[in-house]
Amino acid sequence: MVPKSNAFLISIDLGTSSIRVALTNNELKVIFLKQFPVSLQMDGLGKAVQDADEIIKLALDGLSTVLKWADANQVKPIGICFSNASASLVGLDEDFQPLAPALTYLDLRSRAQAENLLALHGSDAFRFTGAPVHASYWLPKFQWLAATNPAVHKAAYFCTIKDLLVYRLTGQFMTDVANAGADGMCDVRTMDWDPKLLKLAGIERGQLPQVAPTTAILDLAPVVNIPELRKHSDLKIILGAMDGLLASLGAGAFLPGQVTTTIGSSGACRVAARMPLTEGDPLLIWSYPLDKDIWFSGGAMNNGGLVTKWLVENFSLSGIADERGYEAFFSEAASVNAGAEGLIFLPYLYGERAPIYTENARGVFFGLTAQHKRAHFSRAGLEGILFALYSIYTIVQPAGNSQPIQVTGGYLKSDLLLQIQADIFGVTIETRENLEGSVIGAAMVGMKALGVIRDYQDVTAMLPVDRVFLPDEQNHKTYQHHYKRFKKLHEIMISTNCFEKTM
Question: Omega of the bond prior to 209 within 30 degrees of 0, cis?
Fold first, then answer.
């Protein structure tokens, strides 16, 4: 099925570090993009919140800019589809106004509640959610709000930032199945909120959005006060999904066994499947649905681009995480051989999710000798981030899998990072021609929802491979040795309680 020539879609991607609004054509090419940085308020004590109104305002500003460009260039979009960082939690009053900043997935102040849930019920009791019990998910956050901020816990409604944006555009209080799964309170067997978890959270079903397919289509509300949208009142709103799943879709890795890795602010490794994976006690990876036939199992890590930024700020000559600072940092890291002459870095500056699920995990440089210089810290820092990603891959990779890994996210800008990954994983790494994976994935969902395509495979030819990174055999052997040290080090740190509570 050939997509219609006028199949222009707008993708709105709500990330933790930036907002992107893009216009794609029928060949899945981004023909215009507007991007805004957004702030993430952190205090080093587990807090990680965002202003939902600020993010929504920027998203609507970006939408207006894209529509103005479309009008000026005689382009008529047919729909808007969404991508978003998972598991943000916003409490709303009766008028659907935020009562407090949104808790992001990085907010770990509910770690005690997560530990208590596991102690009281055991991880097996939550297996039907397809998600591990962790402070990044909604249930511990609800219990933390009840204990620390009862006024917000008594909110009239709760949702993600994306759900709130959809409500303001359509007047419909809805979420998609992918985000419901990624919130950790959905039963993957029914694809709906679980009554037992609602009770544990201390809330009612009516306080949460209705769960609908990712391809659900809504109409714009007549009261939307955006001049540019009044000219496009026939635009359809498609719910979309969380950014990680859409990044895999946009990379063309949605068939069973295909693996995608992503590093943006955080990082993830995902494998496509036909059904959820709910085996294992405790669950070390999650399973979220894109639709009834496409699931992704994987693990997400807190420590990706945020740690790279910290490394640049502390181990580059300028100490500034701008374009020149990153360039100088990567250049120094490239001057050191694989393995950083024995220096190992545990990158857990923000606690950790998969696969260790230890909110109190901390960063460690280990193996330091007098021969190590600043460049070694740079190299070991990057290797540590990718060792952490590899530790997820060793769990999710299908048996006997040798398919190339598709990669998405900001780290595609660094050939050094991609080559280190190929060498650590011992697998070919492929990048796609278009770097905007989640934006492209959202456009694909919109195209399917609106009948532009019948199946996602109809457009895989539009996702050509751009670069290929082959593993160096000698470097792979070096990294296998150092990965054993990396893994042993964090196992010792956990078993001896060295990741003690400091918050």
Answer: no
Residues 6+ apart with CB under 8 A from 202: 142, 143, 146, 153
Q: Is 140 left (phi over 0), alpha (psi -120 to 50) or beta?
A: alpha
Token readout for 282 is: 């405790």
DSSP state letter for 3: P
DSSP 3-state of 42: strand
- The pair phi, psi for residue 23, each rounded to 5°, is -110, 125
Using pLDDT thresholds of 50, 70 and 90, give the confidence band for residue 101. very high
List beta partners, residue 82: 12
Running DSSP on this structure, what letter comes out for residue 402?
A: -
Residues 6+ apart with CB under 8 A from 129: 181, 184, 185, 186, 187, 188, 194, 197
How far, in Å, CA of 106 to CA of 293, rounded?
Answer: 29
The string of pLDDT tens digits covering residues 21-65 is 999 999 999 999 999 999 999 997 899 999 999 999 999 999 999
pLDDT digits (tens, 9 = 90+) for 113-140: 999 999 999 988 898 999 999 999 999 9
The pLDDT tens digits of the residues spanning 280-317 come to 666 788 999 999 899 999 999 989 999 999 999 999 99
Q: Calculate ∠ Cα 207-187-130, nearest 5°.
A: 125
Contact 28, 440 (CB under 8 A): yes
Residue pair 181/188 in contact by the 8 Å Cβ criterion: yes
Please give the helix or strand (H or E) that residue 395 lies within, else none: helix 374-396
Mean pLDDT of 314-329: 95
Output DSSP code: residue 461: G
184, 137 contact by CB (below 8 A): yes
pLDDT exceeds cutoff 60 at 502:
no
Q: What is d(CA 408, CA 428) in angstroms, rounded to the nearest whole number?
A: 14
Q: What is the CA radius of gyration of the chain?
A: 22
Question: In this structure, what are the phi and psi dihedrals at residue 29, rounded to the nearest 5 degrees?
Answer: -100, 135
Sheet with 236-242: strands ordered across: 30-37, 18-24, 9-14, 79-84, 236-242, 217-219
**Would strands 286-291 and 294-301 be described as parallel, antiparallel, or unpaired?**
antiparallel
Amino acid at 184: G
Q: Which residues contact 280 (CB under 8 A, 6 or more apart)?
A: 127
Inter-residue contact 290 to 311 (CB < 8 Å):
no
CA distance 408 to 243: 11
The Cα–Cα gap between 117 and 133 comes to 8
